[in-house]
Amino acid sequence: MKRSQFWCGLGCGILLAMAVSQFGVFRSAMADEKEKDSATMLYELRTYYTPEGKLDDLNARFRNHTMALFEKHGMKNIMYWTPVDKPNTLIYVIAHKDKAAADASWAAFRSDPVWLKVAEETQKNGKIVEKVESVYMHATDYSPMK
Question: Which residues pair with 80 in a beta bridge?
């Protein structure tokens, strides 16, 4: 091996090591930012109660329309459940930047022409939601989600 090849290889190795090190710092900063965002997010727990036999219709509306509309209006879909011991119930969590963002997102969602059409079409055979409960929450400092 020639001396020039050795020095060139050594220099390239050092530059590569520095780049990888800086990438690690960048990834760490990104992870810290994501954790900070997660810590300050406002979570909303919503429970929907349906008339007897209408849960499948509600699930179809969320699956086919509502979730995408939530994202369109700045609401992040987190998780959806149907309780084992509470038939005709849908429970889900969405996330917002803060309460003002939640209020703005809900206002935009409720007045969206696409949503208004979906709501009308999905209730042609009767109402599919009887009652809605909503709770806003912040994650605790010991939450595994953080």
Answer: 92
Q: Alpha-carbon distance 60 to 106, whole Å? A: 20
Retrieve residue 33's tokens.
Answer: 């930012």
Spatial distance between the Cα atoms of 119 and 110, rounded to a whole number of angstroms = 10
Q: Which residues of the chain, if any, have pLDDT below 50? A: 25-26, 30-36
Decide if 92 contacts 55 (C-beta within 8 A): no
Task: Tell me the pTM.
Answer: 0.74
Q: How many CB atoms lie within 10 A of CB 43?
A: 19
- Supply φ then ψ for residue 42, to 5 degrees: -105, 120
Residue with tokens 């939530």: 70
User: In which residue are the tokens 């879909």 written?
Assistant: 77
End-to-end, the C-alpha distance of the chain in Å comes to 52
